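Hello K.,

You asked for the raw outputs rather than the summary table, so here they are, unedited. I folded two proteins back to back in the same session to keep the settings identical. This is the first:
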Amino acid sequence: MDELPVIPIYSYVSVNLVKPYVRGFYPNAQDLHPLHAIWIDREARAGYLGWKSNP
């Protein structure tokens, strides 16, 4: 038994859908995302939505 290989039965998977104008959101091993570090880039958002200026 000491020589047998270890086979993982399952693994954790994380899926995050984040708009391209959201900044400060980075994937990590624990899938923890502190909200105080996440922000919206208003200029990038305006360009993404096709607005001429920020609303």
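The second followed immediately with the same parameters:
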Amino acid sequence: QLAFLLYNDQPPNSSKAQNWSSRGHTKGVLLLDQEGGFWLVHSVPHFPPPACSAAYSWPSSARTYGQTLLCVSFPLTQFGKIGRQLTYTYPLVYDHKLDATFAQKVPYLEDVVKGHHVPHGPWNSSVTLTSKAGDTFQSFAKFGKFGDDLYSGWLAEALGSNLQVQFWQNSPGILPSNCSRLQQVFDVTQIAFPGPAGPAFNATEDHSKWCVAPAVPWTCVGDMNRNLREEKRGGGTLCAQLPALWKAFQPLVKAYKPCGEKKTFLSRNLSRAHKS
């Protein structure tokens, strides 16, 4: 017996004429049985195909640009918290299966399927989640009425660290790097995979949404960009202090945009400044 939710602000088979901007800028999958399941947080438009599809497929629209997908297995007890977080992010659920048994055990998921969202402030929520393997994750979720950037308006302070943020930078109203608060937020401008043969490319060629702390092992993977429109939309990110995850993402930052300057700095400069 399985339950699932598929949500995406750009669902499969949708057209550009359809406007889902009232819903959260959020993409993901929940799949669970009576013991537990997984939460897949990703950045891929038009993915995955609905359950009625004959087979798995990867959308052609996602072949050109980089994407992120973070899949974490959780025991059933954690899905109540996850469901509540989704009432903040306000996802567009385009396919689901949630019978009465699961709806009773995880009532927040039924609210999400019905298109309900958090009715009153505070308009943001963070919860601690424990994975099936015993690892600790921190989920950050905001509703549109939060009215601020996820990263500079909340996340950096909550994690107590500067952040380097990779996001889709081809949309209007991109927010510049922000140094107005104690914890600074920098827009990544170039990405490079390690090694002499590792490819390097500009952030404008990458649709993924993630951030890292430069000198402490915080890594977050989510579904929000840094632009004016998304200050007023729901969305979130899933963070962890897992050294292996941090070591996979932190070296990818080749360059970032410093505050108030047009040129970019290599990421190693920020790490040195943070350590000094």
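The mean pLDDT is 93.

Happy to rerun anything if the numbers look odd on your end.

Regards,
P.
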